[in-house]
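Teaching note: in complex prediction, the entire set of molecules is handled at once rather than each chain in isolation. The prompt given to students was simply: 'Predict the structure of this complex.' The entities are:
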Amino acid sequence: MTTLPPQPITPEPGLPGTVPPDPVSGAPQGGGGVEREFTIRAMTQRQLVTRRFLRHRGAMIGLAVFVVVLVLANSAIGIFGLPGWWGESYQTTGEVVAGGRMTLDLLPSFADGDGVALGNHPFGQDNVGRDYFALTMRGAQISIVISLLVGLIATTLGVVVGALSGYFRGWVEGVLMRITDVFLTIPLLLIAAVVGKISGGGPVTLAFVLGLLVWVQLARLVRGEFLSLREKEFVEAARAMGASSARIIFRHILPNALGTIIVNATLTIAGAILLETALSFLSFGVQPPDTSLGRLISDYQQAFQTRPWLFWWPGVFIIAIALSVNFIGDGLRDAFDPKQTRVRA
Amino acid sequence: MTATSDPSAASGPPPAAGSPSPATTAPRRRERVADVPLLEVQDLTVRFGTEDGVVNAVRGVSYQLAEREVLGIVGESGSGKSVSSLAVMGLLPRTALITGRILLEGENILEMGVKEQRSLRGRRIAMIFQDPMTALNPVYSVGDQLAEAVRSHEQISKKMALSRAAEMLDLVGIPRPVDRLGSYPHEFSGGMRQRVMIAMAVINNPDVIIADEPTTALDVTVQAQILEKLIEVKDAVNAAIVLITHDLGVVAGMANRVLVMYAGKAVELGRTDQVFTSPRMPYAAGLLGSMPSLASAGGRLRPIPGAPPSLINLPPGCPFSPRCPLVQDRCNSEEPALYATDQHDHTAACHYWADLADREDPTSIFRPTAVVAE
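The expected output is the structure of the full assembly:
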């Protein structure tokens, strides 16, 4: 699809002769057209959505926070074997310096502090002297990977199941919806815990297990969307043009349901972070030596009284990630909602 | 029966000079098989099973459509006119029970496989829908949708398809067609969208266009333009049209022949002028009498009393008999077939069509309204 430049209302002078046309090309100088008419460029759906999203303050803050966390976590300790700028590894143990206290100092010297500095261990050290900043960054990395994967898997599954049952109805719908009903009755956390434990707790496996369990919600939503969209006249028109079922589902109906799908995918991602945290906290999630944010909290819950930073830092990152993704989802939902008042430049 | 009238008799003005011929990129017209009507519907019945019983939506309709002909199908809501044409398109839900034969150049569509049927749709039989506001997909540009219509039947490049799309937009009278390819449906007015629908219907050079109330959703001034354009485009691509409507004025202006439907049956079939000037079936006469016209301005309308029957449990006899002023005993027991009348190629489903033929003004069998609507 061509993306037209955002050009909301360009009212050209309606009367001939009020604006002298450019003598050379006959084109107007004001960036419009010489047509003697009002050129009103209605915005496409995509433009409207983008515009509303970009104007959603919460979503923009959420997006900024999420990007900062993402960049920080991946650049600090490196990714895909690439080294990060933070020298310490999350696996190397060492001597515990100064009781593992945080060396991060944010108070500038003029405010009676020691000056802004990271120090050797900005988030402190754990019992065995591992750098807690590196650990937290690793935890954030893993948590984000898991939640994005869960979002991807759950969305794909949910969309396929929902689309098929909503479009074909009949026995297809019957079978698929009964399956989703079964998944709804399964005590999700329990299954995830058991399967996660059995499978060894690698982040990817964990993501698959969680993804296989949380697609149900989306499947029902997508089915609902398809049920209403399939009755639309443009679907019948497509059929009258000789379009196949696959073409109608993917080319005609799915794009119309995209708003719902995107919004729910982000909400699934936010939910997955918390789910993974909960699982890891129950020590069923990611298994050592790897770590995740939930795992960190679980490992150092005893330290809360004595070395609270071991508890707070992963907590802060969990909240930051979950909240920011949730805000992004909120912004998307508002942006896709056609009942929103149109925002114009 | 075949079309005896000149197919262009009722059509609008010829294509505007200078408008490009669609034949330049459109596929060549297929060789016509001689002596076989383009489209022939034989004894078509459509039934739906519902909780209340079986609905006989179409109860044995037969008609033929000649090349380049415009056949108007009129009738009130629920008379089966839309259902019968959806059956021709193969667009009825799977719950519909269809019998009879629908022959496109002698080949029975109902016996074809799903794939064969699909390849006919949009390529040889195209459809124009009632509401252009909803019949275009809001998320794709008009050019994309037109190009897709081409590319679902032909293996050609997107660029080629788009250039044909632009040609078609030009044909239906959309200014600056190349620029408009990137526009989305919501950027068009209702009339423009219906033009786009027409362009989409004819883009594959179909033999038959089924127009299901193409102007109902448009306002009156736009209606005339759209109909004129429809005729112009039909002539340009040499298609025949099945025009479904409940607007008798539209039929009078466009159709070569008229099929009047009532309670799932064809009750009258004839040339437009025959049916309009000398109806041979009381229902058709009633329709004409209930239509306000300039000629009878100041006079009173003659409405048909009562309401159409339920299609679930039709009593024996003529379905129109409870409302018919000419009703006699025979009407309640024996359902009339389509009888040949005194006029050539004009058939009517009434035992007593001759009674109507004897009258100077057939519409006078109905009583005028008591109060004149000013």
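Point out the following to students. Confidence is low (pLDDT under 50) at residues 1-28 of chain B. The interface with chain A takes residues 89, 91, 118-123, 126-127, 129-131, 134-141, 144, 148-149, 152-153, 182, 184, 186-187, 197, 200 of chain B (CB under 8 Å).
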